[in-house]
Amino acid sequence: MYQARLLPTLLPALALNLWLALPANGEPNESEEPVAQLIGDAEEYALGGDYSAALPLYERAIASLTHDLPQQHRLRYRYGIILNALGGQRPDLYPLARSQFQAVLAYIESAPGLPFEHSAARVRSALAHTYHQQSATVDNPQQRAQMLRNAYQLYRAALNELEKEEDWQNLAITYFNIGQVCEWQGNLEEAIEWLEQAVTLDRHHGFDDLEEDQAYLTALREMVNPSRPVDNTPI
User: Fold this and answer.
1) For the chain, what is the radius of gyration of the CA atoms?
2) pTM value?
3) What's residue 27's pLDDT?
4) Using an 8 Å Cβ cutoff, are 195 and 172 in contact?
5) For residues 20 and 35, is the Cβ–Cβ distance under 8 A?
6) How far apart are CA 229 and CA 235, in angstroms?
7) Rounded to whole angstroms, how far apart are CA atoms 173 and 93?
8) How many Cα atoms within 13 Å fall on the side-chain side of residue 3?
9) Which of 178 and 234 is assigned the larger pLDDT?
10) Distances in whole angstroms, Cα of residue 154 to Cα of each of 16, 68, 125, 172, 204
11) At what angle do helices 69-86 and 94-110 cross, to 10 degrees?
12) Which of 18, 60, 157, 168 is least surrounded, with the fewest CB atoms within 10 Å of its CB?
């Protein structure tokens, strides 16, 4: 089964810690060191699989940055990515991941043109991914269908802006993901259309996902138009 993809926007843990330890002018700021320490400890616990210890530390670090909203929301975005990645093991974390992305999206949209490293489109695609992934963990058909609708709408809302920004890799990933949502909804023809666009971008830009995306597209086409089996039985 092909896995939905999250946009490749994670900062390395060490880079994030160093960034949090420095103010805008690049000079050390002792007041920020506890935040960096909280994040360093949180990620160490997370890498070790001790999520019950890691998650409260992320929350404390976020709460400590209320005086610096750009940094707080950068950390919220990362925290949302981490929560979403853990959702396969702990589906109860998907709503918490959503709340992080929703907060970041509200922050970005509160002041158009506000300098921020993640665009609204990228955050919408990450938010869509939480619904997309969680839909695979629920048994209730109505709940699953609603999650897929939410994912579809958010992915669609992100596409035009990603294209305008020429964020080609994230656009290709979003094409792949919305195609998979359509497949899970039973809309194979539309799924094929989205995967064709993903493959076109992969091929044009030389993205590493080309082979996997092409295989998925081939599998979808086969589902729509199965190859006729060779039959040697005389008529």
Assistant:
1) 20
2) 0.82
3) 44
4) no
5) yes
6) 15
7) 23
8) 6
9) 178
10) 28, 28, 6, 15, 25
11) 150
12) 18
